[in-house]
Amino acid sequence: MKTDVNPYFMKKDYLYNEIADNIANKINTGVLKAGEKLPSVRNLSAEHGISINTAKRIFLELEGRSLIRSKPQSGYFVSPPNYLQLPLAAASQPIPIANNREPDQLMNKVYSTMGRRDLTLFSIGVPSGSLLPTAKLKKEIVLATQELSDGGTAYEPLQGNIKLRRMVAVRSLAWGGNLNEDEVVTTNGCMNALVLCLMALTKPGDTLALESPCYPGILQLAVSLGLKVLEIATDPITGIDIEALKKLLSEIKVCLLVPNFNTPLGYCMPDENKRKIVSLLAKHHIPLIEDDTYGDLHFGTQRPKCCKSFDLDGNVLWCGSVSKTLAPGFRVGWVAPGKYKEQIIKLKLIHSLSSTAIINEAVGNFLLTGKYENHLRKLRRSLTENYQQYAAIIADHFPEGTKISRPQGGLALWVEFPKHIDTGKLYNYALKLQISISPGRIFTLQDQFHHCMRLCIGLPWSNELALKLKQLGKLAKALL
Asked: Checking DSSP bridges between strand 438-439 and strand 435-436, what pairing results, if any?
């Protein structure tokens, strides 16, 4: 039996989440400082036009996230966050020489653990299935089978499912993309989009500029296409060093960046930096491939702009997917290739022809109904809380001198140990305790990051997960 939801209660619930998330964001970004007193329950109620009970509920929610604490007869105060007590991971300093050496063999070893249920997979950068709306997606697949005239057995149009493309275009309004569905081409996940872009723009021997550290899959892809990789110095808060990039422009054929919550550092490039990079690369006729897979996973209240937001002449190829937010196994992605659309469509015809009709229709429906945004709100909250929980345990149980990144979104936490701790060795020891990590060496083609690792924060928090993190810290101390 269908039950109608009272829009009054929906509005109240949305307002409650919005107020709680706004206060949480002010705490996480340092606007509200540790020890600072928050408004009283009565003042919060009056300020936002909410009931006293709703105001109390908001404070209890924030207290549950360990962001505030109550003092009897005094009110609520911002808690001192453990993660801000840890030093910030260092900016990278790769050697400015392009190379195409095979990625470290450790990469294959790490990714061979994918899907193993007997391991705690800190190593695989996707959200756990328990954080995803699996039951709702199953219903959407059934509905898609019914709605498609041929039951989803026929090929899609070459450019892709119109409903999905339209929803990607609609959602681009939130970050200033102002796309229309005709500018979007669907792909089999974001990696497929990156493959098509690199094949369209490069040939073997060309040089590709990347952030450092960089997602291992991109490194493997570049090497497999015969490209030379030029790793650019990268700051853990602001991203790629623009001055370092300027000095190397004459060597670069294409640039590929993940400006919003890149893995493993999790930074969000400032808008002004995005604008400068787009203008700089356009001036030198260097295409920019933008991987925006993590853009919807912001810890703050607003979705960040993309480099594509500042693209005036179609030089930015904006790629995205739902692989890190909704359904990794669905392999649903897209690209808005700007002036390179014709080349991308031609390559899609040759290499994949069509995406899976039923899956794309189901995801298009999910985005259309608003279920996606509701899911994202819950997922973002879980990831924010996980980051704080991870950092608190690292502060208390990892070796002295450990540094971490301060992600502003995404699924990754970058951990930097004292120099003499080898995370390749740590990986082997941890595996014996059913723990899998991503050693820092797999995020580069150069001889660096041996003392670093990436942890996925997309796992459901539990006492067991906390215990595994503590065990990891104990193993690291044993390597001192």
From this structure: unpaired
260-277 per-position pLDDT tens digit: 999 999 999 999 999 999
d(CA 156, CA 163): 11
Q: What is the pLDDT of residues 137-148, one digit of tens each?
A: 999 999 999 999
The single-letter DSSP state of residue 260 is: B
Predicted pLDDT at 1 = 36
d(CA 304, CA 259): 10
CB 283 within 8 Å of CB 253: no
Angle between helices 7-28 and 52-64 (to 10 degrees): 40
Judge whether 404 and 89 are in contact, CB under 8 Å. yes
pLDDT, tens digit (0-9, with 9 covering 90-100), for 346-400: 999 999 888 889 999 999 999 999 899 999 999 999 999 899 899 989 999 999 9
Place of tokens 């936490």: 413
Domains of the chain: 7-80 (1.10.10.10), 84-130+377-478 (3.90.1150.10), 134-372 (3.40.640.10)
* Cβ–Cβ under 8 Å, residues 391 and 266: no
Distant-in-sequence, close-in-space partners of 471: CB < 8 Å, separation ≥ 6: 430, 433, 435
Do residues 290 and 307 make contact, with C-beta atoms less than 8 angstroms apart? Answer: yes
pLDDT bracket for residue 104 (50, 70, 90): low
Report the C-alpha gap between 155 and 157 in whole angstroms.
7
Which residues, other chains included, contact 105 with Cβ-Cβ below 8 Å and sequence gap of 6+? none
Q: What's the CA gap between 300 and 292, in Å, rounded?
A: 16
Q: 35: phi > 0 → left, psi -120 to 50 → alpha, else beta; which?
A: left
Instruction: Write the pLDDT tens digit of every residue in 51-86.
Output: 898 888 888 888 766 678 777 778 888 876 666 678
Residue found by looking up tokens 């928090």 in the block: 461
Q: Residue 127: phi, psi to the nearest 5?
A: -70, 145
Structure pTM? 0.85
What DSSP character marks residue 68?
E
